[in-house]
Write a structure and sequence with these properties.
Two copies of one chain form a homodimer. The first copy, chain A, contains one helix and eleven strands. In chain A, strand 3 and strand 4 form a beta hairpin. Helix content of chain A is 3%, strand content 43%. In chain A, strands 2-3-4-11-6-9 form a six-stranded antiparallel sheet, with no helix packed on it. A four-stranded antiparallel sheet of chain A has the order 5-10-7-8, with no helix packed on it. At the A-B interface, strand 1, strand 6, strand 9 and strand 11 of A face strand 1, strand 6, strand 9 and strand 11 of B. Strand 1 of chain A pairs antiparallel with strand 9 of chain B.
Protein backbone atom coordinates (compact mmCIF):
# COMPACT_ATOMS: atom_id res chain seq x y z
CA UNK A 1 0.00 0.00 0.00
CA UNK A 2 2.95 2.26 0.70
CA UNK A 3 4.64 3.88 -2.26
CA UNK A 4 7.92 5.67 -2.22
CA UNK A 5 7.68 8.16 -4.95
CA UNK A 6 9.63 11.31 -4.56
CA UNK A 7 12.04 10.74 -7.40
CA UNK A 8 9.74 8.76 -9.67
CA UNK A 9 8.60 10.30 -12.93
CA UNK A 10 4.99 11.23 -13.35
CA UNK A 11 3.17 10.97 -16.66
CA UNK A 12 2.90 14.73 -16.90
CA UNK A 13 4.17 16.31 -20.06
CA UNK A 14 7.23 18.42 -19.31
CA UNK A 15 5.32 21.47 -20.46
CA UNK A 16 2.35 20.89 -18.16
CA UNK A 17 1.99 23.81 -15.78
CA UNK A 18 0.39 22.59 -12.60
CA UNK A 19 2.31 24.44 -9.87
CA UNK A 20 0.11 26.94 -8.05
CA UNK A 21 1.39 30.28 -6.83
CA UNK A 22 0.24 32.16 -3.77
CA UNK A 23 -0.56 29.08 -1.69
CA UNK A 24 1.40 30.32 1.35
CA UNK A 25 0.60 33.51 3.25
CA UNK A 26 3.48 35.94 3.72
CA UNK A 27 2.52 36.59 7.31
CA UNK A 28 1.81 33.87 9.88
CA UNK A 29 -1.48 33.99 11.75
CA UNK A 30 -1.37 34.58 15.49
CA UNK A 31 -1.95 31.31 17.32
CA UNK A 32 -5.36 31.31 18.96
CA UNK A 33 -7.42 28.96 21.13
CA UNK A 34 -10.64 28.32 19.21
CA UNK A 35 -13.58 26.03 19.93
CA UNK A 36 -15.53 25.40 16.73
CA UNK A 37 -18.12 23.04 15.32
CA UNK A 38 -18.22 21.95 11.68
CA UNK A 39 -21.97 22.70 11.70
CA UNK A 40 -21.23 26.36 12.39
CA UNK A 41 -18.39 26.84 9.92
CA UNK A 42 -19.28 28.64 6.67
CA UNK A 43 -19.94 26.30 3.75
CA UNK A 44 -18.42 27.55 0.53
CA UNK A 45 -19.93 26.20 -2.69
CA UNK A 46 -17.26 26.50 -5.39
CA UNK A 47 -19.11 24.51 -8.05
CA UNK A 48 -22.27 22.39 -8.00
CA UNK A 49 -19.95 19.42 -7.33
CA UNK A 50 -17.51 20.92 -4.82
CA UNK A 51 -18.24 22.36 -1.37
CA UNK A 52 -15.84 23.05 1.47
CA UNK A 53 -15.38 24.42 4.98
CA UNK A 54 -12.11 25.66 6.46
CA UNK A 55 -10.65 25.71 9.95
CA UNK A 56 -7.39 27.60 10.04
CA UNK A 57 -4.83 27.47 12.83
CA UNK A 58 -1.38 29.01 12.70
CA UNK A 59 0.41 26.31 10.70
CA UNK A 60 -2.39 23.74 10.35
CA UNK A 61 -5.45 24.08 8.12
CA UNK A 62 -8.33 21.59 8.02
CA UNK A 63 -10.67 21.56 5.03
CA UNK A 64 -13.87 19.52 5.19
CA UNK A 65 -14.79 18.80 1.60
CA UNK A 66 -17.87 17.40 -0.08
CA UNK A 67 -17.32 16.25 -3.66
CA UNK A 68 -20.28 14.98 -5.65
CA UNK A 69 -19.82 11.94 -7.89
CA UNK A 70 -17.96 12.91 -11.06
CA UNK A 71 -16.27 15.97 -9.54
CA UNK A 72 -12.77 16.41 -10.93
CA UNK A 73 -10.06 18.39 -9.18
CA UNK A 74 -7.64 19.16 -12.02
CA UNK A 75 -3.94 18.33 -11.88
CA UNK A 76 -2.13 20.82 -9.66
CA UNK A 77 0.65 21.06 -7.12
CA UNK A 78 1.54 23.28 -4.18
CA UNK A 79 4.38 23.73 -1.76
CA UNK A 80 2.01 22.91 1.13
CA UNK A 81 2.22 19.37 2.52
CA UNK A 82 -1.20 17.65 2.29
CA UNK A 83 -2.81 14.73 4.10
CA UNK A 84 -6.16 13.67 2.64
CA UNK A 85 -8.43 11.58 4.85
CA UNK A 86 -11.55 10.06 3.33
CA UNK A 87 -14.55 9.70 5.65
CA UNK A 88 -17.17 8.56 3.10
CA UNK A 89 -17.04 7.43 -0.52
CA UNK A 90 -14.11 6.81 -2.85
CA UNK A 91 -11.77 9.34 -4.40
CA UNK A 92 -9.44 8.37 -7.24
CA UNK A 93 -6.11 10.18 -7.21
CA UNK A 94 -3.83 10.50 -10.22
CA UNK A 95 -0.44 10.97 -8.63
CA UNK A 96 3.14 9.89 -9.11
CA UNK A 97 2.29 8.21 -12.42
CA UNK A 98 -0.36 6.01 -10.81
CA UNK A 99 -4.08 5.87 -10.10
CA UNK A 100 -4.80 5.39 -6.40
CA UNK A 101 -8.30 4.65 -5.13
CA UNK A 102 -8.70 6.04 -1.62
CA UNK A 103 -11.80 4.85 0.24
CA UNK A 104 -13.47 5.55 3.56
CA UNK A 105 -11.08 5.13 6.49
CA UNK A 106 -8.07 5.60 4.23
CA UNK A 107 -5.47 8.33 4.04
CA UNK A 108 -3.11 9.69 1.40
CA UNK A 109 -0.06 11.68 2.46
CA UNK A 110 0.99 13.99 -0.40
CA UNK A 111 4.48 15.52 -0.24
CA UNK A 112 5.00 19.20 -1.04
CA UNK A 113 5.07 20.00 -4.77
CA UNK A 114 3.85 16.59 -5.93
CA UNK A 115 1.33 17.09 -8.77
CA UNK A 116 -2.03 15.38 -8.21
CA UNK A 117 -5.51 15.23 -9.70
CA UNK A 118 -8.60 13.69 -8.13
CA UNK A 119 -11.90 12.30 -9.35
CA UNK A 120 -14.87 11.47 -7.13
CA UNK A 121 -16.02 7.94 -7.97
CA UNK A 122 -18.98 8.40 -5.62
CA UNK A 123 -20.16 11.25 -3.43
CA UNK A 124 -17.17 11.86 -1.13
CA UNK A 125 -16.72 13.41 2.30
CA UNK A 126 -13.07 14.15 3.07
CA UNK A 127 -10.95 16.13 5.45
CA UNK A 128 -7.79 17.51 3.90
CA UNK A 129 -5.07 18.79 6.17
CA UNK A 130 -2.44 21.23 4.97
CA UNK A 131 0.66 22.83 6.39
CA UNK A 132 1.19 25.67 6.01
CA UNK A 133 -2.46 26.71 5.48
CA UNK A 134 -3.52 27.10 1.82
CA UNK A 135 -3.53 30.87 1.36
CA UNK A 136 -5.23 30.50 -2.05
CA UNK A 137 -8.14 28.66 -0.40
CA UNK A 138 -8.41 31.24 2.37
CA UNK A 139 -8.19 34.16 -0.08
CA UNK A 140 -10.43 32.46 -2.69
CA UNK A 141 -7.81 32.85 -5.41
CA UNK A 142 -8.14 29.16 -6.28
CA UNK A 143 -9.51 29.61 -9.79
CA UNK A 144 -8.30 26.12 -10.83
CA UNK A 145 -11.14 24.71 -8.70
CA UNK A 146 -13.85 27.02 -9.94
CA UNK A 147 -13.72 26.29 -13.67
CA UNK A 148 -16.67 23.91 -13.83
CA UNK B 1 -17.49 29.94 21.14
CA UNK B 2 -14.25 31.58 20.07
CA UNK B 3 -11.81 32.51 22.78
CA UNK B 4 -8.73 34.63 22.39
CA UNK B 5 -6.42 33.37 24.99
CA UNK B 6 -2.75 33.73 24.34
CA UNK B 7 -2.03 36.32 26.97
CA UNK B 8 -4.67 35.28 29.46
CA UNK B 9 -3.58 33.75 32.76
CA UNK B 10 -4.32 30.12 33.42
CA UNK B 11 -5.11 28.78 36.87
CA UNK B 12 -1.81 26.89 36.94
CA UNK B 13 0.37 27.50 39.95
CA UNK B 14 3.56 29.27 38.88
CA UNK B 15 5.56 26.26 40.03
CA UNK B 16 3.56 23.76 37.99
CA UNK B 17 5.83 22.02 35.50
CA UNK B 18 3.83 20.99 32.51
CA UNK B 19 6.10 21.79 29.57
CA UNK B 20 7.28 18.67 27.79
CA UNK B 21 10.74 18.32 26.32
CA UNK B 22 11.70 16.31 23.27
CA UNK B 23 8.44 16.83 21.40
CA UNK B 24 10.15 17.91 18.17
CA UNK B 25 12.55 15.72 16.17
CA UNK B 26 15.92 17.25 15.37
CA UNK B 27 15.80 15.93 11.83
CA UNK B 28 12.87 16.33 9.46
CA UNK B 29 11.42 13.23 7.84
CA UNK B 30 11.72 12.89 4.08
CA UNK B 31 8.38 13.66 2.47
CA UNK B 32 6.82 10.52 1.08
CA UNK B 33 3.64 9.58 -0.79
CA UNK B 34 1.84 7.04 1.39
CA UNK B 35 -1.53 5.35 1.01
CA UNK B 36 -2.68 4.03 4.38
CA UNK B 37 -5.81 2.75 6.11
CA UNK B 38 -6.54 3.32 9.80
CA UNK B 39 -7.48 -0.38 10.03
CA UNK B 40 -3.92 -1.31 9.11
CA UNK B 41 -2.07 1.16 11.31
CA UNK B 42 -0.58 -0.27 14.54
CA UNK B 43 -2.76 0.30 17.62
CA UNK B 44 -0.74 1.27 20.64
CA UNK B 45 -2.35 0.65 24.03
CA UNK B 46 -0.74 3.05 26.49
CA UNK B 47 -3.10 2.38 29.38
CA UNK B 48 -6.37 0.44 29.67
CA UNK B 49 -8.10 3.78 28.99
CA UNK B 50 -5.92 5.21 26.21
CA UNK B 51 -5.20 3.76 22.77
CA UNK B 52 -3.76 5.48 19.73
CA UNK B 53 -2.61 5.15 16.13
CA UNK B 54 -0.21 7.48 14.33
CA UNK B 55 0.21 8.62 10.74
CA UNK B 56 3.30 10.72 10.30
CA UNK B 57 4.06 12.95 7.34
CA UNK B 58 6.91 15.40 7.15
CA UNK B 59 5.40 18.28 9.12
CA UNK B 60 1.92 16.88 9.80
CA UNK B 61 1.09 14.09 12.25
CA UNK B 62 -2.37 12.56 12.69
CA UNK B 63 -3.16 10.62 15.85
CA UNK B 64 -6.39 8.60 16.04
CA UNK B 65 -7.16 8.28 19.72
CA UNK B 66 -9.60 6.18 21.69
CA UNK B 67 -10.13 7.34 25.28
CA UNK B 68 -12.39 5.33 27.55
CA UNK B 69 -14.77 7.16 29.88
CA UNK B 70 -12.84 8.56 32.86
CA UNK B 71 -9.49 8.69 31.07
CA UNK B 72 -7.49 11.74 32.16
CA UNK B 73 -4.68 13.23 30.12
CA UNK B 74 -2.73 15.22 32.72
CA UNK B 75 -1.93 18.91 32.34
CA UNK B 76 0.93 19.35 29.87
CA UNK B 77 2.13 21.64 27.11
CA UNK B 78 4.29 21.34 24.01
CA UNK B 79 5.72 23.58 21.35
CA UNK B 80 3.75 21.67 18.69
CA UNK B 81 0.55 23.29 17.47
CA UNK B 82 -2.44 20.96 18.03
CA UNK B 83 -5.90 20.68 16.50
CA UNK B 84 -8.18 18.20 18.27
CA UNK B 85 -11.20 16.95 16.33
CA UNK B 86 -13.79 14.87 18.18
CA UNK B 87 -15.56 12.21 16.12
CA UNK B 88 -17.51 10.46 18.90
CA UNK B 89 -18.21 11.22 22.56
CA UNK B 90 -17.33 14.25 24.69
CA UNK B 91 -13.94 15.36 25.92
CA UNK B 92 -13.60 18.01 28.62
CA UNK B 93 -10.55 20.23 28.25
CA UNK B 94 -9.05 22.29 31.06
CA UNK B 95 -7.31 25.07 29.18
CA UNK B 96 -6.71 28.79 29.45
CA UNK B 97 -8.32 28.88 32.89
CA UNK B 98 -11.56 27.37 31.59
CA UNK B 99 -13.34 24.04 31.17
CA UNK B 100 -14.37 23.44 27.57
CA UNK B 101 -16.62 20.53 26.60
CA UNK B 102 -15.82 19.40 23.07
CA UNK B 103 -18.34 17.03 21.53
CA UNK B 104 -18.69 15.06 18.30
CA UNK B 105 -18.28 17.25 15.23
CA UNK B 106 -16.38 19.87 17.22
CA UNK B 107 -12.80 21.07 17.09
CA UNK B 108 -10.37 22.73 19.47
CA UNK B 109 -7.34 24.56 18.08
CA UNK B 110 -4.61 24.66 20.73
CA UNK B 111 -1.74 27.13 20.22
CA UNK B 112 1.86 26.06 20.80
CA UNK B 113 2.90 25.96 24.48
CA UNK B 114 -0.62 26.37 25.89
CA UNK B 115 -1.03 24.03 28.89
CA UNK B 116 -4.03 21.72 28.68
CA UNK B 117 -5.55 18.72 30.44
CA UNK B 118 -8.37 16.52 29.18
CA UNK B 119 -10.94 14.19 30.73
CA UNK B 120 -13.13 11.77 28.77
CA UNK B 121 -16.75 12.31 29.89
CA UNK B 122 -17.76 9.32 27.74
CA UNK B 123 -15.85 6.94 25.50
CA UNK B 124 -14.22 9.23 22.95
CA UNK B 125 -12.89 8.82 19.43
CA UNK B 126 -10.73 11.74 18.35
CA UNK B 127 -8.22 12.69 15.72
CA UNK B 128 -5.50 15.01 16.96
CA UNK B 129 -3.36 16.81 14.41
CA UNK B 130 0.04 18.18 15.28
CA UNK B 131 2.70 20.22 13.56
CA UNK B 132 5.51 19.48 13.77
CA UNK B 133 4.94 15.77 14.53
CA UNK B 134 5.12 14.85 18.23
CA UNK B 135 8.55 13.24 18.51
CA UNK B 136 7.76 12.02 22.05
CA UNK B 137 4.73 10.10 20.74
CA UNK B 138 6.73 8.63 17.86
CA UNK B 139 9.63 7.69 20.15
CA UNK B 140 7.35 6.52 22.99
CA UNK B 141 9.02 8.85 25.48
CA UNK B 142 5.62 10.18 26.54
CA UNK B 143 5.71 8.94 30.14
CA UNK B 144 3.16 11.57 31.24
CA UNK B 145 0.52 9.52 29.40
CA UNK B 146 1.54 6.13 30.75
CA UNK B 147 1.23 6.76 34.49
CA UNK B 148 -2.18 5.13 35.01
Amino acid sequence: MKNKSVKKKTTLRPTARVGLNGTVARKKKTPELKHLAWDEVEREILTPLFERQLIVGQEIMLARIVLRKGCIVPMHSHINEQVSTILEGTLKFFIDGKEVLVGAGEILTIPPNMPHKAEAMTDVLAIDIFTPPRADWINKTDSYLRKK
